[in-house]
């Protein structure tokens, strides 16, 4: 998609897709409750971190991950913030989110922070663009981007990750969220034996993928103390040009705000 292409989010209605999936008996296993007492012996959540390290080692050229140029249209706040704004990317360190922001003639300096692959991917990204680093979290940041990251971790670890995100935001700061949505085509491709939780699956390489409903996202972020500003399914049709196969993609788009602290004179709640 060209950089100047308009941003769209509604090629089809999610409710129509939901009705179709729920009436398809071949996809019934995606709807059933998960029984944790009977997991597949070949699937284990204990090594998900190592699985992602192996994944990034296999795709270490820095060209595997395409830049997400649509983000500046999806989240125009990144273009209109002032010169002192700080943007923190919580991701995998490959630069696909932060590089499009850096390429725009905007006054702020985003910083890419990664827990496991920062050093390796920093070297990879330096041949693509250079930028000033810094202690971006000191004093809080204005924006946190959480793009296709939360779904890669076990569901039970998500609340802790979100708590860390809100802890580094300034009061009034925004968390910008995009991730896999319920009934995305990639979810429907998983066979029953790949389920490791409710709406949670393990790929053949050991990496995880969770598929979010709006209610799940809302509960996770509101429980962490965020205020919901925007939350919707992005339903996009695309075509695989090699086989002419039509695909229906579903992502969740969200904007959440850290509450502005009450004035000292305000009555306690």
Automatic annotation (TrEMBL):
InterPro entries in alphabetical order: METTL2/6/8-like (IPR026113), SAM-dependent_MTases_sf (IPR029063)
Sorted UniProt keywords: Methyltransferase, Transferase
GO MF entries: RNA methyltransferase activity; S-adenosylmethionine-dependent methyltransferase activity
Example of a GO biological process term: methylation
Family of the protein in this entry: Belongs to the methyltransferase superfamily. METL family.
Protein name: Methyltransferase-like protein isoform X2
């Amino acid at each position: 998609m060209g950089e100047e292409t308009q941003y769209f989010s509604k090629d089809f209605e999610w409710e129509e897709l939901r009705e179709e999936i729920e009436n398809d008996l071949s996809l019934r296993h995606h709807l059933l409750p998960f029984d944790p007492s009977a997991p597949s012996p070949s699937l284990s959540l204990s090594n998900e971190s190592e699985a992602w390290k192996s994944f990034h080692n296999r795709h270490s050229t820095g060209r595997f991950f395409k830049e997400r140029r649509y983000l500046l249209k999806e989240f125009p706040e990144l273009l209109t913030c002032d010169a002192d704004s700080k943007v923190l990317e919580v991701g995998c360190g490959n630069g696909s989110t932060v590089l499009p922001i850096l390429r725009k003639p905007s006054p702020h300096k985003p910083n890419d922070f990664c827990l496991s692959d920062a050093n390796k991917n920093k070297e990879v990204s330096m041949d693509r663009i250079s930028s000033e680093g810094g202690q971006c979290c000191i004093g809080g940041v204005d924006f946190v981007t959480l793009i296709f990251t939360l779904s890669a971790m076990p569901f039970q670890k998500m609340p802790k990750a979100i708590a860390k995100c809100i802890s580094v935001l300034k009061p009034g700061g925004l968390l910008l969220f995009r991730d896999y949505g319920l009934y995305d085509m990639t979810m429907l491709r998983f066979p029953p034996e790949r389920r490791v939780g409710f709406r949670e699956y393990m790929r053949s390489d050991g990496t995880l993928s969770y598929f979010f409903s709006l209610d799940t996202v809302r509960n996770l972020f509101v429980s962490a103390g965020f205020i919901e500003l925007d939350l919707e399914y992005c339903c996009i049709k695309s075509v695989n040009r090699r086989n002419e196969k039509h695909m229906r993609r579903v992502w969740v788009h969200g904007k959440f705000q850290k509450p502005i602290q009450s004035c000292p004179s305000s009555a306690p709640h």
